[in-house]
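fyi for ur records
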Amino acid sequence: MEDRREKKKQKDYEDSLKRKKRHLEAWKEQIELEKDDYSEPDKHTDEYNEIQTLLSDIRERLPIYADDLETSLSELKSGHHLASVLITGRVIDHTIDQIKSSQHLGGPEEVLEHLEENGIIDSTEGQITESVKSYRDIYTHEIGKKPDYSETLIILLGCTKLLQKIQESQKTREYDLA
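which gave:
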């Protein structure tokens, strides 16, 4: 009886050490990823400046959208890619839902077609917007999926360009965005 307790105690101790080792390895991996991420922003100053310029334009008529996208940019710069994608995804969803509702359209595909037909985006920008939507869906609905730096940047840039194009077309009120 005593021998069984000792074996169980030893096994529990070994399991505890294995669990701690896994935690340490995960923390080490996270630190290495963050260290790599902090070196990335210097390479992307032009993209950041482009996003910042677009956000300044968006802020005029859509300040709440600009606030969320600035938060997303800040998360991107900090290496928090998933947080950035989720924040941007929220803006994308809201924008598409508002256009869909105000224009009595079906799904996101109809919204994109509507934007193309009205000359707000061209077909290549429609593809960008569509990929933005699908990226967002992947990272919000699939467990274990994480965007990398470039995917996060594409999603954020695509969303800011979409809002800027809508704003330039003078349709923010018509689409119930403002």
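The two ends are 74 Å apart (CA to CA). thats all i got for now
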